[in-house]
Amino acid sequence: VLRFSKQIFDGCHFSLPFVQEEESEEEPKLKYERLSNGVTEILQKDAASCMTVHDKFLALGTHYGKVYLLDVQGNITQKFDVSPVKINQISLDESGEHMGVCSEDGKVQVFGLYSGEEFHETFDCPIKIIAVHPHFVRSSCKQFVTGGKKLLLFERSWMNRWKSAILHEGEGNIRSVKWRGHLIAWANNMGVKIFDIISKQRITNVPRDDISLRPDMYPCSLCWKDNVTLIIGWGTSVKVICSVKERHASEMRDLPSRYVEIVSQFETEFYISGLAPLCDQLVVLSYVKEISEKTEREYCARPRLDIIQPLSETCEEISSDALTVRGFQENECRDYHLEYSEGESLFYIVSPRDVVVAKERDQDDHIDWLLEKKKYEEALMAAEISQKNIKRHKILDIGLAYINHLVEKGDYDIAARKCQKILGKNAALWEYEVYKFKEIGQLKAISPYLPRGDPVLKPLIYEMILHEFLESDYEGFATLIREWPGDLYNNSVIVQAVRDHLKKDSQNKTLLKTLAELYTYDKNYGNALEIYLTLRHKDVFQLIHKHNLFSSIKDKIVLLMDFDSEVICLCPHNSIPELQHVVSMYLHKLFKRDHHKGQRYHEKQISLYAEYDRPNLLPFLRDSTHCPLEKALEICQQRNFVEETVYLLSRMGNSRSALKMIMEELHDVDKAIEFAKEQDDGELWEDLILYSIDKPPFITGLLNNIGTHVDPILLIHRIKEGMEIPNLRDSLVKILQDYNLQILLREGCKKILVADSLSLLKKMHRTQMKGVLVDEENICESCLSPILPSDAAKPFSVVVFHCRHMFHKECLPMPSMNSAAQFCNICSAKNRGPGSAILEMKK
C-alpha cells in the first residue's frame, strides 16, 4: 500500500491527502505547490518541453519554440522566439548571465542575457541537448557542447571565432548531458560517458542495463551531486554515486588519469523520469504504469516523487508522494522532467501541462501537520523550541487550540492545568477561559489554577467560583478561602452568602469555621473569636496570639483551658483571672518553658503545688534555684510530705535527719540505701547500719546492696548470734560473688595496665634507638657554636642525648666519681628529663 501525503488541484495547494488505501501516521517530507501566474497562461496555449533552474530565475521551453524567463513565483520577465518547433533543452551558466538553447529543427543559440554576444547555428539534424560551460562568463571558458547524432564541443578562439570538435559519435542520438566543473557526462543509446575537458580524455563508459527499452521513450536521467559524483537513472535502474577518482601514477600506463567507481546500484519499481540529490538522499521522479482491474489494460497513473536513502546494494524508501498533475493520463516517461535548485532545496516537476514545485517542509509545516493530526502538545512544544524560526504560527494560538481540544475531549482538569502555562499573565484571556469553563459547568476544574497575583483577575471571577463551590461543595469552598488571599474578592459579599447558607444549616462546622476565617480577613476579630469558641477549635489560640486579643479572653480563660490547657502559656500574667488553680497552672506552664522567667513567684508556687498539684512539687523543688528552702520545708512538714521533706533536708545539708525520716516514716530500706549511695558519706552508712542492726528485713536489704560501697564485714560482725535473717544464705552468696567480681575486675585492669605500659616502653625504646641527624645547622647547647667543625678532616667528638640536645664533648662537665653516666645539662635542670642516655659520634 503506497503512502500518499499531498494532492495538488488546479490553481491552489491543498494539504488534504489523496483518496488513500491507508492513512499514514508518518509526517510527509515535502510540500507541494503549483507554479502559477505566467506559467498558467503559457500552458493554456502551449506545452512545456523543458526547463532549467537558476537560483535567481527559471527558464521554460515550450513545444512552440518559445523560451520564457520566469521569476520564482512563475511571473514572465522575458520571452524569446527561438524556433517554430519544440525546444529540446535550455542550459545556463552558474552566473545566470548566459543561456544556451537547442531545438528540434537543428537550431542552436548561445547568447548573453545582459550582453550582445551570441552564437547562432542551424544544423541539418535535430539537436537534442546543449550544455554551456558552468563558468561561461569567463573569457577562458567560452565553451559549450551540443548533441544530436554526435557530441560536438564548441570553443571560441582568440580571434573570437568559434571552432568545433567531435567528442563522440556512432552510438545513436545524444539524449542527455550534464556539465559540472571540468567533467561532461552524456548519455547515448549505448550508455553513459564522462569526458575530462582539461586532459581531453574520455574517462569511462557505463553501459545501459536494460537494452529492451527504447532510449527515446525512456531517456537517461543524469545529475551531479558534486564535482566528482554522478548519479545515473535509466529505466528502472539507479547507479548511485558514480565517484570520479584520481588514478595512482603506477597504474597510469596508457589509461586516463581518472577513473569511475560505482558505489551503489539498485532497482526501482517504476521508470525513472528525473533525479536530484537531497543531502545524502535521493529525490526520484518516477513514471508509473498500472493495470486497470476492470479492463485489465495498462494505463498511465499519477507520477511519484520519492525520497530514497541509497544503501550498498539496495535502498530504503523515506517517503513517497503521488502527484496529480494536469494531463497525467496522456503523459509518457519522456514528458516528465525533474529540475532542482541546489541553494534552496526546491524541486520542480515539469510536465507538458503543469509545473509543480516541491519544497522541504519547514517548522511551520511541521506544526501544521501536528495540528492536523491533533497532536497539540507536540505542536506547542515544537513552536516553543523554534519560536524564532516559525512565521505562520503563534505559540498562544496553538496553546488556545490545545485548550479547546482538551475541553472538547472532556479532559477538563488537564485543560485547566495547561491554562497556567499557555495564558501566562494575560488577564483578559484568563477571564475569557473562566467564562468558557462556566458555560460547560466546570468552574471547579479551573479553580486550583487561577492566578492569585500578577495578574489579578476581576473580583467577580473569584466570587463566581466561590459561589459555585458554596452551592455544592462546602469543603472545597473552605479550602479556597484558606488558600486565596482575602483581597482577591469582595469579602462582605462572600460573608453574606455564607450567612445565608447558615440560616439553612446553622450547625455546619465547615461553614462556621470558614465564616470565622472570613471575619478574620475583615478584621472582625470579635465575631471570629466567638465562632472559634463555639466550635472549641484550636485555631482560636493562633487568632488570640496573632492579633493580641488577650484582653478579650480574660473572662474566657477557664473555658479555653477546658479543651486545651496550653492556652495559659499564650496569656500575659496580667490577663490571668484571679483563680488559684488557674494561677497554679499558668505558673507551672511558665516554669516548664523557662525556669527563671517567673522566679519572683516561686515562693507562691510552693503552696500552689502543695494545694493543687503535688506530683509536680518535687520536680519543681529539684529544678528551681530561686525557691526559699526554709519556707518550702515548713510547708512540706506541715502537710507531712515525706519525700519532699527528705529532699529539702538533704539539700540543706541535714542528711542524717533525712535518712532518719526515710527509715522511720517510710520504712523503705531500698530508698534509704539509695539515699546513702547518693550522699556517699561514711557516717551516713554507719547510721544506717546502727538503725538496721535489730531489724532483720533491713539487714537483708543492706547485705544485698552494701558490698560495693562499704566493707560487708562491718555489718556482719554486728549481727547478733541467733538472729533470724530472711534469705541470709542468698545474701552471703551475693556478697561473695560481688567480691569475686571485684577481684576479677582488678586483675583485668592490672593486665591491661601492664600490657599498655609494656607497649609504651617498647615504643619509647624504638624511638630512642633511631638515628639523629647532625648537620651544619645544629649548634652546641653549651658554647652555641656550630656542632660540626668547619674543617671536616680534623677529628672531633660530639655527644647527642636522647632529648636531641647536642654538645661538644669538651663542653660537657666531667662525670663524677660516683656515676659514670652523663646527663643533658639542660634537661637535668628540669628534674632530669628524657636525657638519660648518650649517643656518641666519634670521627
From TrEMBL:
Listed GO MF terms: zinc ion binding
Pfam families attached to this UniProt entry: Beta-prop_Vps41, TPR_Vps41, zf-RING_Vps41
Membrane topology recorded in Swiss-Prot or TrEMBL: Peripheral membrane protein
Positions of the RING-type domain: 780-828
GO biological process terms on file: cellular response to starvation; endosomal vesicle fusion; macroautophagy; protein targeting to vacuole
InterPro entries: Beta-prop_Vps41, Clathrin_H-chain/VPS_repeat, TPR-like_helical_dom_sf, Vps41, Vps41/Vps8, WD40/YVTN_repeat-like_dom_sf, WD40_repeat_dom_sf, Znf_RING
CDD domains per record: RING-H2_Vps41
Ranges occupied by CHCR repeats: 555-701
UniProt subcellular location: Cytoplasm, Cytosol; Early endosome membrane; Endosome membrane; Late endosome membrane
Protein name: Vacuolar protein sorting-associated protein 41 homolog
